[in-house]
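Re-run with default settings, no changes from the original entry. Doing this only to confirm the output is reproducible before filing.
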Amino acid sequence: MLNAQTQYRDIIFHRHHVSPSRPHMSVHCRAAQFAPFAALTGYDDIINESARCTEEESELDESRKTELNDRLVFLLSREQPPEVTVIYFVPDMKKAGGQYLTFTDRLTKYDPYRRRLLFASGLALPVDRITDVTSPVLDALNW
């Protein structure tokens, strides 16, 4: 068995070739040549999307809808719009279901034509998606 010095004797002491016409390639670019090839581009995204959990929207019964309506009418009839915390459902655009979000802001008014609540921050929530409304004003009245 020959050692490396003997085996490559004719080239081992030559100077490294430097091209006069092409710029030196960075280590990062050289490494990119040997990056793994992804034959199924987008496959990981599809797997991650199917694994993402969503919740099913719960249907409110008539007594709960009446209670929420009474709370909102009371809060909107106040002279000074109160700060409220609203839990509402946001449907998922890519798959069945969605998620429940909680939002706290000062309630400003109700838009009866579009059936939505308007808040000081500019957010507009559809009344049909709201599942709960709480406020310090309601808590003070034990409502």
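The mean pLDDT is 88. The first helix runs from residue 4 to 7.
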